[in-house]
Please model this.
Amino acid sequence: MSKDAVSTTEIARLRELASILIPASATMPGAVDIPDFDQWLARAVRASGYSPADRQSAVEALPAKLTWESTRILSLSNPEGFAIVSTIVSAAYYMTPVVLAKLGYPIDRKNPAGMEEFVAEFETGIFDQMMARQPHFRVVPK
Amino acid sequence: MPETSEISDVVVVGGGPSAAVAAHTLSTKGLKVVCLEQGDWQSPADFPGNRPEFELLLQQKWSWNPNTRNRPADYPMNLDAAEVTPIMFAGVGGARLLYGAHWMRLLPSDFRVKTLDGICDDWPIEYDELAPYYDRVGAFIGVAGMDGDPAYPAFEYNMPPHPLGRGGLRMAKALNTLDWHWWVGANAIPTARHKAMEKCVRWGVCETGCPAGAKASFDLAYWPHAMAAGAKIITGARASEITLDARGRADGVVWIDRKGATHKQRAGVVILAANGIGTPRLMLMSQSGKHPNGLGNTSGLVGKNLMLHPNNEVLGLYDEPLESWKGPAGQPIYSLEFYETELSRGFYRGSKMNLMPVPSILRFLADFDDLPFDQRWGRSVHDLAKYAGSVLSWAGNIEDLPEEHNRVTLDSSLTDSSGLPAPKIEYKISANTKKSLDFSLARMVDMHKAAGADHVFSHNLWKEAPGHLLGTARMGHDPERSVVNAFGRSHDVKNLFIVDGSVMVTSGAMNPTATITALSLRASEHILATARDMDAAA
Model:
């Protein structure tokens, strides 16, 4: 395995962290409830711009026993490392279709506008105030 | 000795918007045009915005900062003395592959800052002279907008505007309440299929490259037409020197391919379109006995007066769904309320402000990182993330005044992968610009508050933005105070032209691509009109 590749141990630790940072709520799934979350974590690691050394160091700095309190202490004692691992975990969570759908994001991002959309906005009168203004650009002497 | 090529009428260095306009204009009139571009073609399918991990891809692989991106086509920059990073992208279409396509003309006052405000210099041309070229480039690429903005002299758009959307409407109401100027966005993003460009599908990731091919990046908007007219573009071609003949006229450009082989493209006319960093870099590298300080640098101004348009931003998070994942981004609306000099504010000139939707989730969540741990993480994260889709960004594009100490020089030790000296950027934000940054930031907070934002986050400087690289080979009538004349022609070398943002005398506060391409069209037609008299090498 390349030294740059993400290991199963790293993924396991990131998953453990995710369970603490992003638990389920009444309306949102917890990170570890996401199907194939390990694969999303691996995808996030591959896409991120952190150097393998920085990333691995940040993962290795995670407390052996991850709890809410030990994670909180880590965030204060090693903010740079915590920023790396928390960003990867967050990114993995918020790129999943199930979470995006829960947040109201469309799965199909293509939303071409119909011509009637602007017309409807115009007809609300929203432009009237600006259209009533006289030209007010600064006059330049010839 | 470099390998020599068949001679062309014109060689263009750079493959961005101004290069594309020049290549198209000249090739359609029968001139043989060869363009040297150090980057490659980019497929819309390769852009990161169509991937769920696009925010992470911007950290490095698709960073706007070439030092971070570090692709083979990129050259490094020494930024130790730069308070703003001059971002760029090497590729056919240039940095405008990754722009928001805000298509803004300068105002008449921008060309007369000396006359009106008693500072800087006037341009050697006026708005009225450039207006027809704005019209023609706009018509060619298809700019969407609405006629009648009272902040501008009258002109016509070529396509209907994009809808304001929920966020734009909410903010427009707020600005009406404040009685501050706003207008529906001018975007070089087609609202209907136009030539090689698709109709916008409002993906919302314009500034990371349009995955739908629905933005007037110049690989789509101009290059296909230039190539159909006969222009040739060589990718992976890094220009290293402009050469002169025995009579002191430019006779071609030496370039290095990715394997390190040296070539020479001979030509009768040399056009530089390598942006406000790359163009002075190449001129400074082109030293000779007759031009010991770099080619075309008798004035000593090549590389000086760098203007970068510092940007600031205020994010607003709202309590209703605003569909801020929906584009274009693009600008639904802009405001020129604080564009002009008002000395009671304590500084000269002003800013252009634009509203943009924010589809990115990590970006706004990061603004909560200062919260205590238990308010940022755990179940609290869901209380914060509920704002996804309800985030609007006001950004200020601040007019930067020309100052000679802000400059591009050649670094004494840092080199690119071809062994050529890297540019060293010295750029300090002036006291005037700092005051304008502070003022505009406060006004954008006012805008969000008037619109009823739940949370407002101020960012007083985007260090890696906006990629407006201006002023480093300024135009003017006086050869002692300028590098090129009003048509971009070098005062020193009569068949050497510059058509990129380097020639801008002052920066204005508008996104500059509309102006740069209009200047390029004007310069190119001047080349056609004066070709017989140019006494060129060919």
Summary: The mean pLDDT of chain A is 95. Chain A touches chain B through 57 residues (CB under 8 Å). Residues 8-107 of chain A form one domain.
